[in-house]
Amino acid sequence: MQAEKTIIGFIGTGVMGQGMIRNLLKAGFPVNIYTRTKAKADALISEGAEWKDSVAEVSAASDVVITIVGYPKDVEEVYLENGILAHAKEGTVVIDMTTSSPSLAERIYQEAKAKGIAALDAPVSGGDTGAKNGKLSIMVGGEEAAFHQIRPVFEAMGENIVYQGGAGRGQHTKMTNQILIAGGMLGLCEAFAYADRAGLDVEQVLKSVATGAAGSFSLSNLGPRILKGDFAPGFYVKHFIKDMTIALDEAEKMGLLTPGLALAKQRYEELAEMGFENDGTQALYKLYQK
Amino acid sequence: MQAEKTIIGFIGTGVMGQGMIRNLLKAGFPVNIYTRTKAKADALISEGAEWKDSVAEVSAASDVVITIVGYPKDVEEVYLENGILAHAKEGTVVIDMTTSSPSLAERIYQEAKAKGIAALDAPVSGGDTGAKNGKLSIMVGGEEAAFHQIRPVFEAMGENIVYQGGAGRGQHTKMTNQILIAGGMLGLCEAFAYADRAGLDVEQVLKSVATGAAGSFSLSNLGPRILKGDFAPGFYVKHFIKDMTIALDEAEKMGLLTPGLALAKQRYEELAEMGFENDGTQALYKLYQK
């Protein structure tokens, strides 16, 4: 697959999409873009992306269509409601990189397949920094042949690119990632609240605990932000709630009880109700402050 | 402080104590030992440790008395019930390295101080491997002068030796460590159960999630054991329940609600009731299996 000959369509130019589009352009791919608020695309257009006036136009004019939008309902709209699947050519590969519902990914896969379109679900982790630096972790579900065919597209955006199996398996892998984080954030915020309330010097405590059995990415990266009172998003509370809602729904469908995940979701909802939905996930600490 | 001139008394020759005593001997300290079951001390005696017939004898014959026993009630008995504090010489430094109650550590500190004895609370992390290799993380509370005075004793047993403040602060730091682990274990076991139930190849999932934002020591070290069905203890379920019980009691005393910790403790108690109290903490996964 040659970059210059594979035209990418990209829908969604939020903070993640912007970094990913820039890396696709840098790798030599022509990129058609569309997003609901055109102003968000202006900088990208001046950098070489080509504006299209609708989802339909992007879909019709591209060989690979990538989406990274907000919520599962946005994914559903952009693919299924007179959207991508209605307008993409046969042989197109469509890739949803939104963190979204595994069940919806399977539905899109089936509807796409009926039209001769290959659909991959490929959510990411690594945040805006990973998107900007082309160092995302990309978890891919769908048909393996399509995965191998468009691998250079993924390689322009990410580093840790792993095929996880059939349709929905990319999303399930991301859900696994989020369930791990949910438990970790409960532990992190309760532990810091405990240490603070016990009168410990929490920076000093980090020296004892960060490198041993209690060590984690969250502890080393979000712990110091909590200590500085820095609750700015990295990853938004409202998006984490969306992800945990999907994970909990899927777990219920599978008959799996996940009380830790349920508790984490409930605590983050309390936090959002207090008005902190646009903070970063480390703001869970606020629930434990006096 | 010269190793040859400082006589150590060591009470408790379980799997942790054995490794620690061997490292003290290796560093040149004479070590008096006592434990309830003498058979457990035989190998150590043949390697140079000196057997004493009671807590009283060890205490009277040593400059520094170290304990690592089972539960807070054992700590209370060995220090306060006609034990170490009744028999140690004025000027002795006593160090409890059991993971035990911060409140009890403060009580021992006060009673010791009244007799001219310096008490440190210095729980560890790093497990039997850390004890054997002299690589424990040691979290120390008590008077700073005593900490500096006996630092070479700690250095014979550990690597990451951090003074955390006044009496009880070593234990509070260890509780912080255990609260971090409690949340992490909930996340780990629920995430693995989710991934398995969703039909993912969990080893493949680890490739996507272990090095990113969901990464942790528990994930990288206990995750692969779960995949192999290896539930042997590293760290016993029953001991983790003890630690969480202490942490939850202390949190309640401070008026701090820690629902994540409370849930983790409740889940581990269910696991113990099922007969798995002598498994390793990764056995929490069993609660989520079909």
UniProtKB/TrEMBL annotation, chains A, B:
Belongs to the HIBADH-related family. The keyword Acyltransferase does not apply. It comes from Pullulanibacillus pueri. The active site is at K174. Keywords: NAD, Oxidoreductase. Residues 168-288 form the 3-hydroxyisobutyrate dehydrogenase-like NAD-binding domain. This is Oxidoreductase. The keyword Lipid biosynthesis does not apply. It comes from the Bacteria. One of its GO terms (molecular function) is oxidoreductase activity. Residues 8-165 form the 6-phosphogluconate dehydrogenase NADP-binding domain. InterPro entries: 6-PGluconate_DH-like_C_sf, 6PGD_dom2, 6PGDH_NADP-bd, HIBADH-like_NADP-bd, HIBADH-related, NAD(P)-bd_dom_sf. Gene3D superfamilies: N-(1-d-carboxylethyl)-l-norvaline Dehydrogenase, domain 2, NAD(P)-binding Rossmann-like Domain.
